[in-house]
Amino acid sequence: MKNDVTIGLCNPKSPSNVGAVMRAAGCYGVDAVSYTGERFARAAKFKTDTKNRQREIPLLGVESLTEDLPVDVSIVCVELAEGAIALPEFKHPAKSLYIFGPEDGSIAQDIIDQACAVVYVPTIGCMNLAATVNVVLYDRLAKSNTPVDHQAIIQKSRDVNNRLVVKEGC
Fold first, then answer.
1. Which residue of 30, 63, 65, 79 sits 20 to 30 Å from the alpha carbon of 114, by its own alpha carbon?
2. Smallest Cα–Cα separation from 146: which of 74, 97, 94?
3. Are 34 and 22 in contact (CB under 8 A)?
4. How confident is the model at residue 141 (pLDDT cuts 50, 70, 90)?
5. Whole-angstrom Cα distance, residue 158 to residue 52?
6. Contact status, residue 58 vs residue 21, Cβ threshold 8 Å
7. In this predicted structure, what is the pLDDT of residue 41?
8. What distances in angstroms separate CA 140 from CA 4, 75, 91, 146, 163, one per listed residue?
């Protein structure tokens, strides 16, 4: 399933957050995840990709998240920045690179300057990296016009311990 969505992580430090980002990437059909910096590579020995999404979705260390992008890919930065668009008001581009800042910092200004949009999730305080990725990807899905076979998704996604069926009622 190709959705023309890539996630870019600016110098992530937490292997648990990157593992959770990979899980979100698998849940929402992300094509690839890239990251910059050295912190995650040093911490990667603590395997946290609980669903082994790296077998399906590339996780690539890169020098630059924005270099050599196809011209039809829109850069969308997700950051608590003055002038950012609230996520509920944002219209997601068809082909997107979503860039998220580090857990203990912000996206660099030169990357923000390249973005076609900067969005933020209107919460009180900030969420962690993985939670933010999940919310943004869910928002993209919720706003898409992609037809979905909901029963097939439920049957494919649940684990072997879940065989619940909703009875007709109220």
1. 30
2. 94
3. no
4. very high
5. 16
6. no
7. 64
8. 12, 14, 8, 11, 28
Q: Each residue of 67-119: pLDDT tens digit?
A: 999 999 999 999 999 999 999 999 999 999 999 999 899 999 999 999 999 99
12-33: burial string, b at 16+ Cβ within 10 Å, e else: bbbbebbbbbbbbbbebbbeeb
Rounded-to-integer distance, Cα 21 and Cα 43, Å: 15
Could you tell me which residues are beta bridge partners of residue 32? 6
Residue 129 vs residue 153, higher pLDDT = 129
Residues in the chain: 170
| Most confident of the following: 38-47, 92-101, 142-151 | 92-101
pLDDT at 46: 45
Q: Let me know if 77 is exposed, middle or buried by CB neighbors in 10 A (0-12, 13-18, 19+).
A: buried
Q: What share of the chain is helix, strand, coil (3-state, %, to 5)?
A: 30, 15, 55
Q: Which amino acid is at 9?
A: L
